[in-house]
Amino acid sequence: MDRDMRTYIMYCDELAYPKGQLADMGDYSFRVEVQRDGEASASIRLSGTISSSNVGELLIQLSAIFDRSDKVTIDLSEVGNIDIFGLKLFCSCHRSLQFSGKELRITGLDNPAIRTTILSEGCQRTLGCAFNSHHSCIWSGGC
Questions:
Q1: Strand ranges in the chain using DSSP code E only, listed in sequence order
Q2: Cα–Cα distance for residue pair 9/1, rounded to 1 Å
Q3: DSSP state of 28
């Protein structure tokens, strides 16, 4: 892919295995698409499954993007399955970026997979924490 397009597509399994030797992760694969929106901002679209089995790999990829960006938007609308560990990852990222003086917006919070996990884990809130300045708290549905 042409680097000047500033679009990067990564698969978590490609980090650990050379091309052509991908691990069969079955339902545990996720996809990260990044669109650089200038020097200091990025839009990330996630799809697939985000769970305890792969949040470590996702954190590595997100951290690399966060390091180079002051303003990040993460779209979760295409996530097919997520567990509490995936949700806690986004909560932690939100707080960490706020402490660093950076901005993280999370969209797609009306995704049924996300709402179902939040409700089944008993984590829904009507207000986000004090770090919810951009109304993108995952627990309150972006309220």
A1: 7-11, 30-36, 41-50, 71-82, 103-107
A2: 9
A3: G
Q: Domain locations in the chain?
A: 3-120
Give me the residue label for tokens 């691990």.
23
CATH topology of domain 3-120: Transcription Regulator spoIIAA (3.30.750)
Per-position DSSP letters for 6-17, written without gaps between them: -EEEEEHHHHHS
Q: Sheet containing 103-107: which strands, arranged edge to edge?
A: 7-11, 30-36, 41-50, 71-82, 103-107
Rg (CA), the chain: 15
Show pLDDT as tens, one digit a residue, over the chain (143 residues). 333 333 344 444 344 433 333 334 455 588 888 988 888 899 999 999 999 999 999 999 999 999 999 999 999 999 999 999 999 999 899 888 888 999 988 899 899 999 899 888 777 665 556 655 655 666 665 43
Alpha carbon distance 74, 14 (integer Å): 21
Backbone phi, then psi, for 89, in 5-degree steps? -60, -45
d(CA 119, CA 93): 21
